Each structure stands twice: as structure tokens, then as C-alpha cells.
Amino acid sequence: MTTSANPIPSAVRRPRAFPAGFAAIAALGLLSLVLAGCSKPGFPHYPANYREYMYVTNGGSSTVSVIDVVNVRFDRDLLVGQNPADVAVSPTRNEVYAVSAGPANGAGSLSVIDAEKNAVAATIPLHKQPTSIAVAPDGKLAYVSNSGSNTISVVDLETRREIAQIPAGVDPASISLAPDGKTLVVADRRGNSVTLIDPATRRIRATFGGCPGATDPVVLPDSSKTFVACSAGHSVMVIALKQKNPPEPDRLETIMEVGRGPVNLALKPDGGEVFVANSLSDTISEVVTDSNDVLDAIQIGNGPVFGLVSPDNSLLYVGNYRSQYITVYSILDGMRTAAVRAGDGPSALALSAAGNLLFSADARSGDVAALTTSPFALFTLIPTGRDPNAIVDKAFKVR
């Protein structure tokens, strides 16, 4: 699963513009960090060989912006393919993978970014309108959904080439790989269906219809269930995945009623609940995953499109696309506890490895907001390209 919100309204293609006082905010934030040095409260002590970056795909600029997390500053822009739409990291190598959809009705590509050099190391041609990527747990293969070709590309990340194509439904816009690597869940947006693929055989295992505008699948940590948002309606589809002990086939468990326009699912790390961002109802719905119970909807903000749960399972951060606010929902207390003004159109979120900083890709203002998590406050705004739409964190040590 990736950090991109899928789908969201198209942002206006326009030159980058920053809120009034942007320079002052950035300067004060960075100056305070420099003056305080490594002893600044809430900031980790990093060893000399530690590196950490946020990678942000800019759909309107054909670039990936690299943000230095250690120093909380812009590092560089990398030129990739046209209309980059998703980004993922390798679990085993210091590499990052950016999916570019390409021109309308044209072929896209996968850019391999060397995280140690922050340079594009390879470009792998794909098919029509690739939009989403999932990387295997061993880091050897990646699966990319080609929404315009109705296929899934299997990419060998070691040889850096496509090695197979797997058929899917109509407009496979987003995908998720089960943690055990045994099921690839494909949300077929215009097909209004969910396709399950066996990565070992590279064949379709099952297809389930009745999910209008299917998008953003998530899979429980034990790989037993998948939840898929039906974004063109007001429901979430729940599918029990094939099990060997005892033997059980893939089966539809239920279709749950939530708010209007559910576009994103945020899963707690412990798998106990999943939170649904209902973009047209301005609410979130909390779903208990073992019982499939839907709790009361919570008013959260103006156009919620992306949610992210803290590593300790206690907080849900929500980006509200039709505003400039990121809201915080306390899972333990069952209530909204904070709202902070960031950039315009926050549409994708990522936490730093230490969890002390939350980064928001702001689609309409063309920047990334860096916020401290304790206290929850805006630290600085960092410029990116146009229409930032996905963001991911990569932390590592150099030898």
C-alpha cells in the first residue's frame, strides 16, 4: 500500500504559489532548528551516517521532490516520467520507485531512484497509464497497475525490466499486496470490481463485482482480509482471503455502508480498525475489522481524502483536500482533538521514521508542510513541484 490519495479532484495546473509569509515561516522554523542544534526538544539525535528523505511525486511537473528529513529542508528535484502518480520504497535496498502515468492514452514508466545518491538510476518502460505500485516483501519484484491497459506489470527490480503482464479488470487504478506476499488485491475503478491475483502463478484467483469506483485496498497484517473503498458510492467491500489451514476459498464477507465518496482507507498497525475517509460527507467512519461493525461517523474536516494512523495506534491524522487543515482524531478517546492549518489541499501524508514529524503533500499550493507531532503544530513549509500527490519516507545508514 501506498501513500497516495486515490482518487482526488484534479488540481489546477498553475505556477507554484506560496501562502503569504511563506518565507518568514520557513526561515524562522529552520533558524530555530539551527540555533538549538541537536538538542532541540522533540528532534532525534542522528548519527553521522544516518540519512532520511521524503520523496514526493509532483503530477504537474514530471518530477520527484526530495526533502531532507534530518535538516527539514528541500534537497532537490528529480526529473522522472510525465504525470508521476505513485511512489514506493524498497524494503531491502536503498531505492525508491516512482510510477509515472505518462501522457493521456500513452505509455508510462517506472523510475528507479538511488536513495544514497538521490539520482534516477534507471527508467523501466511500462504500458498505458500506470498508476499504482506494490513491492514484494523480499524487494525482488514490484507490481504496477496499468489502468489504461487493464493489466498488472510484474517488474524484476534486480534486472530492472518487466518480466510479465497479468490481466485485471477495467481500469485497475490501485493495488495492494498482502503482507504474506500470497495475494495481490486489485481495485478495478471503472470495472466496479475487485480482482484477486495469485503472485506465484500470476493468474486471477477470483473477481468480486458490486463495488462502484473501487479504490485503495488494504489488507490486514495477518493477510486474512482485504477492505476496498467503493468511492463512487457509500460503501466498503470486505473479502476474506484464501486460507490453507483450514482450507477456505476467497469469499465476499459483506459490503458495509459508510459515508459518501469513500476514497481512502487507513489501517491501524495492529489491524484492529480501519478508518474510512468519506470525502463527500466530510466524515470518517471507523470499522472494527474482526466483526465488520461500522461505528458512528465523525465530522472531521472539509473533504477528507487521506488518513494515517500513528505507529502506537493512538492517533489518526487526516488530510482535508478542500481546505488547508490537517485534523487529528484520538482513537482512544473517540473524538477530534486538533486541527492545524498547513498548505492548501493536503492530499497525502507520511510520518518520519522517528514519528516526530508529519509531512503533508499539499496539492493546490504546491508544497509540503512539515508539522511537529508533539505538540501538533506547523514547523515549516517546503516548496515542491506542481500538484504533489504522493509521498513516502526512506530512512537508512550509509557505510
Structure description:
The protein has one helix at 22-36; strands at 50-58, 63-68, 73-79, 84-89, 95-100, 107-114, 119-128, 130-135, 141-146, 151-156, 161-167, 172-177, 184-188, 193-198, 203-209, 214-219, 225-230, 235-240, 251-257, 262-267, 273-278, 283-288, 293-294, 298-299, 304-309, 315-320, 325-330, 335-341, 346-351, 357-362, 367-373, 376-383, 388-397. It has a domain at 1-79 and 342-399. It contains one helix and 33 strands. Strands 20, 21, 22, 23 and 24 form a five-stranded antiparallel beta sheet that branches. A four-stranded antiparallel beta sheet has the order 3-2-1-33, with no helix packed on it. Helices cover 4% and strands 53% of the residues. It is globular and about 50 Å long. It has 399 residues and is mostly beta strands. Mean pLDDT is 91; it is low at 1-39.
Radius of gyration: 20 Å
* Secondary structure: number of strands: 33
Overall mean confidence score, pLDDT:
91
Strand content: over 45%
Helix content: under 10%
Q: Show unreliable segments.
A: 1-39
Distance linking N and C termini:
29 Å
Structural class call reads mainly beta
What is the overall number of helices? Answer: 1
Shape: globular
Major pleated sheet: 5 strands, antiparallel
Please give a handful of descriptors for the protein shown.
399 residues; four-stranded antiparallel beta sheet; disordered N terminus; mainly beta
Element layout with pairings:
Elements: H1 22-36, E1 50-58, E2 63-68, E3 73-79, E4 84-89, E5 95-100, E6 107-114, E7 119-128, E8 130-135, E9 141-146, E10 151-156, E11 161-167, E12 172-177, E13 184-188, E14 193-198, E15 203-209, E16 214-219, E17 225-230, E18 235-240, E19 251-257, E20 262-267, E21 273-278, E22 283-288, E23 293-294, E24 298-299, E25 304-309, E26 315-320, E27 325-330, E28 335-341, E29 346-351, E30 357-362, E31 367-373, E32 376-383, E33 388-397
Antiparallel strand pairs: 1-2, 1-33, 2-3, 4-5, 5-6, 6-7, 8-9, 9-10, 10-11, 12-13, 13-14, 14-15, 16-17, 17-18, 18-19, 20-21, 21-22, 22-23, 22-24, 25-26, 26-27, 27-28, 29-30, 30-31, 31-32
